[in-house]
Amino acid sequence: DPHGRFSIDPHFGIIRTKNQLDHETQSVVVLTVQSQLGNSPVYSSTQVNISVIDINDNPPVFLTQSDKVIISHTQPPGTAVYIAHAEDKDSGLNGAIKYSIASKQSDAFSIDPSLGVVNLTRTVFADKQQEYALHIAAEDCGSPPLTSSLMLDSLAVKIVILDINDNSPNFTSSPLSYVMENVEVGFLVHHVIAKDPDEGRNGEVTYHILSGNENKAFVLDEITGLLTTAQLLDREIQDRYSLTIVAVDDGSPALSTTQLLTIVVLDVNDETPIFLKQLYETAVRENQDPGEFVLKVEAVDRDAGLNSLLRYEILPGAGYEKFKMNQDSGELITTASLDRETQEIFSIKGSSCHDLGSPPRSSTTQLYLTVLDENDHNPSFAKTQYQISVREDLEEGSAILDLFASDKDDGLNGEVMYSLIDDTFGAFAIDSVTGSIVTTKALDRETKSQYTFRAVASDCSTHLPRSTTVMTVLIQDVNDNVPKFEQNYYRVSVWEGQSPKTDILQVFATDLDSGLNGEIEYSVLSGNENATFLIDSARGILATNTVLDHESISSYREMASSHRLVLLASDHGTPSLNSTATVLITVLDVNDNPPVFSSTEYHIHVKESIPVGSHITEVSASDHDVGTNAEITYAIISGNDRGHFHLDGKTGSVDLMKTLDYEDTMKYTLVIQAT
Prior knowledge:
Blueprint: E1 6-8, E2 15-17, E3 28-36, E4 43-51, E5 61-62, E6 67-72, E7 80-83, E8 86-87, E9 97-103, E10 109-111, E11 117-120, E12 131-140, E13 147-149, E14 157-162, E15 170-171, E16 176-180, E17 188-191, E18 194-195, E19 205-211, E20 218-220, E21 226-229, E22 240-249, E23 256-266, E24 274-275, E25 279-285, E26 293-296, E27 299-300, E28 310-314, E29 323-325, E30 331-334, E31 345-355, E32 362-372, E33 380-381, E34 385-391, E35 399-402, E36 405-406, E37 416-420, E38 428-430, E39 436-439, E40 450-459, E41 466-476, E42 484-485, E43 489-495, E44 503-506, E45 509-510, E46 520-526, E47 533-535, E48 541-544, E49 562-571, E50 578-588, E51 596-597, E52 615-618, E53 621-622, E54 634-638, E55 645-647, E56 653-656, E57 671-674
Parallel strand pairs: 6-14, 16-23, 25-32, 34-41, 43-50
Antiparallel strand pairs: 1-2, 3-4, 5-8, 7-11, 9-12, 10-11, 12-13, 12-14, 15-18, 17-21, 19-22, 20-21, 22-23, 24-27, 26-30, 28-31, 29-30, 31-32, 33-36, 35-39, 37-40, 38-39, 40-41, 42-45, 44-48, 46-49, 47-48, 49-50, 51-53, 52-56, 54-57, 55-56
């Protein structure tokens, strides 16, 4: 008892049911019962067989709710046309089934109550009725009996009498149909209808497409005649289809008829207008009156009718207000005079066209307009005058200035040519293309320090409008001139003994340079080792720096009384240039030195027998002065009272004039004066 349907009393062994039993589920139950005495390990068992007795609780059930039978109207009586079959889960008489026709529309049929076989009782050829509905009941033999019937609303058993196929199908549906091109796949386009007056299969019509559907655009339901789309339609690819439809009945032999079905695909605004060019480029002249034709844009729309009727316009953008577009023709004209110098390129990204569909579709193209130049502007220099400074040592061919004149025009109208119209004394030239001014010869500020001339800028048009500017070129000095003394050699004399700072000489040097290059500084280059002289560095005045002593001159002498100085004149340029001049200074003697004897005393020893006329000695004195100031005269001023001696006044030679007598006078002291 795996399902626990029974229980047993443990003391009395009474078996009882716990749940409802079902004969159809289990008709026999075998229980194993075990008995045991006390706690004894010995037990015994037995089997109890229980048969579940059937009751009539299940009605007969047909396997199908309805059925259909087709017979020829020529069948003879007694022909079995249908076998009804029902099942009953009960057993015995409860499951035995009897069949009957519950509702008769005709006496042409009978049923075997045991077997359920439906037979013809007579021929139906003469009957106008071509379809019969039999409602068959199934009843078991239980008590009470249970019944199941095929209900009328479920058609029960339908017996159709076959017809003779003597009529061809006849189309009743229109041979013309319309469909929008944007319908989805599976959309019902047309209902093909053909009628066949025959009955049964002879009047059952099927439909087929014979031709015109090569691209498989449509599907025709062969039973219903519903023509639907099999793929998306596109009127722009194909705007109509001509389908040859055939309607065929199911007779034998089958009869058919054809119809030419025309399907017109109606336009939907599904095509965007397309410009013939994505970019329109053209040129238009400047300074023309408004209304000047510029270009024509054109677009195509593959739709039809209003969906393909286009309107053109310019969308707002930079410079668009200077143009106007004809909305019908797409012609673009100017609304104002154009100025290339203000705007040369008009890149209008919003030239648009739209169709008149609902909703409208549109597209855009780009217009690239170039304004052509006219020579309506003169060349113009940035300044009316230029002043520049250049060094005079600039090499020939050097560029000193790149002039630039702008011309707002374009092309030849804006190509500037440069020229000079004044005399530059052969010093300058200008490159006619670049405007570069170059030197054509070596410059010399000392010859010409400034140039003024005019430069002209003209364009290449036939009208030759031009512009001028004044050029002032200042030549900057370069230290290229050496200072020059007025004399290369100076001679000057000065008395000795003059006080310091006594002016001796003023020298002059000239320098053709200017500025610092022409500023001269004087100095003593050599010959002034003891700083005997000084010179004013700015004025060139040479003066004594000490008291001159004619007698002290030694190394500076050309002659005994001269100084040789080398003077230097230097400019202040970088690098500095200089030149020299020689000054010979003669120091004039002043008689400021007395004669000086070579010895203050002379000691002479002679014999008294020396003859008269003999040379005794010679005195000598020197004088640092020169000239007559140094001419010495000697004289005996004492000690020669008796005339024994004779002194040569010029040579200092002392001779004996009288005989000497030792015994008379043994010593003579002569005082000799040198003047």
